[in-house]
Amino acid sequence: AVVSTQSTWGHSDRLLEEEHLKIEMLNFLFWVHAALALAQNDTNRDKVLRKGKQSVGVFTVVQFPNVICTSSTSGRNGTCYTSSECTAKGGSGSGSCASSFGVCCVFEKSCGSSTSENSTYFTSTDRTLGTACKLTVCKSDSSVCQIRLDFETFVLSNPVTVTTITIGPSTAAAGTGNSLGECQTDTFAVSSPCGKAPPVICGTNTGEHMYVPVCDQCNEITSSFGSSSTATTSAFTVKITMVECTSKIKAPEGCTQYFTGTTGTLSTYNYQSGSGVLLHNQDYCACVRSERTTCSICYYSSTTTFFMSVPNAIAAIGALGFDTVCGVKGIGATYANGGGFDYITIPNGRCSSPPTTVATTVTVDRYCGTEFNCAQTTAIAGTPANTVCTNSKPFRVCVHSDNAEYSFPAADGEGTLANNRGFQLSYFQQTVCQANP
Fold this sequence. Notes:
Layout: H1 2-61, E1 68-70, E2 77-81, H2 83-88, E3 92-97, E4 102-109, E5 113-115, E6 120-123, E7 132-137, E8 144-154, E9 165-167, E10 177-178, E11 187-190, E12 209-213, E13 219-224, E14 236-244, E15 257-259, E16 263-267, E17 283-288, E18 296-300, E19 306-307, H3 315-319, E20 321-322, E21 343-351, E22 364-368, E23 387-390, E24 395-400, E25 405-406, E26 422-430
Parallel strand pairs: 4-6, 5-7, 15-17
Antiparallel strand pairs: 1-2, 2-4, 3-4, 6-14, 7-13, 8-12, 8-14, 9-10, 10-25, 11-13, 16-26, 17-24, 18-23, 18-26, 19-26, 20-22, 21-22, 21-23, 21-24
């Protein structure tokens, strides 16, 4: 019996031990499952985080700068925007940019419109004869100091080209003149609320340009078409560029035109390769950017590319026009026949050093007449030298004309097409400085 009792208790102990092992195994499996579940949650969370980072990365890529781009429209640049931005701003998508995340947005405006977009094209598409075609231009942001107008096409009616007497006695005599060069039919003007406005122009000026100062007030570009205008609806296309205050293409203060390069040419508005006529009331400066190692600049012309008045209608003076003979307004004791006002200024201009002749040279600012020459003597004498140099910076040639062209005597007066074409000057910069006379 004793043995039997011990055997019963031994069997019960094994059962209890097996039950304990089962519970421990269940606990172990529970914690393994919990750990696996936690690890899975961490993995899913990492995937979400990575996905979020990828989304942020894509968003960063599409935040491209709104820079100038080349559109698929011939002859047109645009600004890189998203498609929705381009539509909202009134532009037209033409080609892609920013790795195809953006569109090259082209802005074209015509009469009665406004713009604050860089690289806007102002066209005469909607022009009506007998009315004015206007565009209001506001700077795109506070960093803009100027706008540059590039005349990609500019063919308005010519100024007056006939020599009918409109000034002084009704028959040819001392003091008679005409309106040669006056813009009577069409005009192109730009307002400048915060600085000097460019001159009013007309005729053909394709390839020319203008700089205009800007401020918080908007500028207005106005082209007036006379009822007898010969200008078509494609008369002009003007590209408008916003020039930032820190830009390398920003013109010095007071410069209506700004040229770059060690060599080049500059001419009066409506010069038309020598077949045009000098416009009335011009008062502006054409400037040349000084290159880094440059000390001086020289201007020169041929004998057929400079016609800026004939003082007192005396051919000899016109052939050697400089200094005090230039800039004499109207008629009077000095010039009874008039014709001495139209001129250019080159500050501290002088003959190229060393001079090409043995004549004594002098420094002068004003140049006029029918030939472009440096001043070799203080008197109207000497052998002409058609190159004028200066060390004065910024390099500039300033143009001045009045509103009368005196035409007596007819053969030599400034009131003829032959003597009133304006000018074209070539220039070259030099690393050497000019010696004082």
